Amino acid sequence: MLAAVQDKGFPKPSTNAYFIWSDPNPCGTSYSIFSIQPAASTISFEAPDQNLSTNHVPDNETVRKRAFECAARFGLALADLIPKSVYSASNAAGCDQTLTNGICARGIFLSRQLDGVSFWGDANNGSDGFSIEFGSYGEIRSFYFVWPNLERGRKGIAAKPEEILKCIKKQRTLVLPEGEEKYFDRIRTLATARTFTITKITPYYGVGVFGEMPTNDTPPQFITPFAELEAIADFGNSNQIVRLLSPVLSSDATRLLTDTIK
Predict the structure, then answer these.
(1) Mean of pLDDT values over 35-45
(2) Radius of gyration of the CA atoms of the chain, in A
(3) pTM
(4) Which of 125, 214, 218, 223 satisfies CB 3.0 to 4.6 Å to 121 for a cystine?
(5) Tens digits of per-residue pLDDT, 51-85?
(6) In a domain, 84, yes or no
(7) Where are the beta strands (DSSP E) in the chain?
(8) What's the CA gap between 82 and 259, in Å, rounded?
(9) Quick count: other Cβ atoms within 10 Å of Cβ 60?
(10) 29 in the Ramachandran plot: left (φ > 0), alpha (ψ -120 to 50) or beta?
(11) Domain for residue 153, yes or no?
């Protein structure tokens, strides 16, 4: 990894964001091959001139093991990491490359956890944790981690079941999209369900205040708990499995029910 950026120079300690950019690729664009962003508590790397060979790509177990070994080298607390599913990357064609429809890399996201509760999402949406991808012969193709210093803020009272149900009825919960569906058509269809039965509740942490969008591109200063609900919507002659994001703190439920979502 260091060989890919050694001729670019390394930054001195600073609170400023730092980027190393690639040379223009055949498409005529450049991208960040290494970055340090103190405000967002992130470090990332993406190897230039990546090898798209499908030879000796590590298997799932090797990827998990090496991911934890690499996380330890960064000083991340391994007990605070939960492995998510291993994913595969195909050698899709670029401007001067030929698609051979084979697996050229495998990667994994290790989600950060607090008190046994992991963060929701993965590296694609900047969730707290460590992501790494290995290519042919185990070469590191990319890594990305978000690991801010966290301090406990305040304790909150858990929302009552009736408060969560009221948030669902008042459409103050987020229905997660499924595949390539027409999202708003699905929302309108769900409104016609006869019954709505919650079958599973999974707690998560997320960045920012639940139900509010960040403003001014400023990194959120807080993390808050919420829950992913799995439910069955019964339409009488058919059923549909639905996943929602719901508040779990009474204060968040009250705020969402009385204020306009920002």
Answers:
(1) 91
(2) 22
(3) 0.81
(4) 125
(5) 888 899 999 999 999 999 999 999 999 999 999 99
(6) yes
(7) 18-21, 32-37, 42-46, 81-83, 87-90, 103-114, 117-118, 129-134, 140-146, 174-175, 195-207, 223-234, 239-247
(8) 35
(9) 13
(10) beta
(11) no
